[in-house]
Amino acid sequence: MALIDAPLGKSSDYPDAYDPQLLFPVAREENRRRIGLEDGRWPWFGEDLWQAWEISWLRTGGVPAVAWAEIRVPSASPSIIESKSLKLYLNSLNQTVFSSADQVRDVIARDLSSASGAAVQVDLHSVDQGARAVGRPEGFVLIDDEVVESLGYDYNPDSLQAGGDVVSEKLCSHLLKSNCPVTGQPDWATVLIDYTGPAMDRAGLLRYIVSFRQKQDFHEHCVETMFTDLMARCQPQKLSVCARYTRRGGLDINPWRSTDPEEAVGPRLIRQ
Fold first, then answer.
1. Domain spanning 141-258, CATH architecture
2. Among 7, 177, 223, 260, whose Cα sits 20 to 30 Å from the Cα of 236?
3. What residues have CB less than 8 Å from 224, skipping those under 6 apart?
4. pTM, whole model, 2 decimals?
5. Residues with catalytic annotation?
6. pLDDT confidence of residue 41
């Protein structure tokens, strides 16, 4: 489907009946070609963790139920789901009767798997329970106060460099800002970088993160661009990159890419 046909940035009527056709897939292939990946083999493991905070349906007796969800879309899926279409789809559940929360979970997982082209995992959680959000995950070093000269606000990977002894570090910046490629609206995120390799120049890394400030791209594409740039220019032995984006329209998207297949998304952050 062409991105120009997506509901994002357009006036929409909110659905009052369940409709999986509202889901709008966007192929990952075009962005991956832009960063030099064309053979269908990606240099990472990973997934896109969506947190959906506005899920509701009707129970058998007609009384509404509410929940929030963690949705995990594999990075190997052919397509991502355009965010407004997911919001519209989830709202289409609002006036639909389901026999149980498990049925809701299974329906969402089935529909998102069909739209994205890969098996999507969905976990529903009670809004009456939750885990505390953190400002910065334990063990990560904040680089936002590094002294940086000659800042630029157009995407530029040239400031990335590494050298010297091999180290293992966890670095964090709250200053990632990118922009929706359809609406131009700002997307804010904390980026988490966990690596083993020659020591990254922290000022150069911060300059690089700030250079995304005017970049127009989807969340998933920004993280894949970062991972590819860091691997090419800093040559770490191990690398994980995660961006935890702030919520918009009841959804937040948290892509992670890693040389390690174990999940690297970390805890929910305070801005989410």
1. 2-Layer Sandwich (3.30)
2. 177
3. 31, 32, 35, 44, 75, 255, 257
4. 0.91
5. 180, 187
6. 80
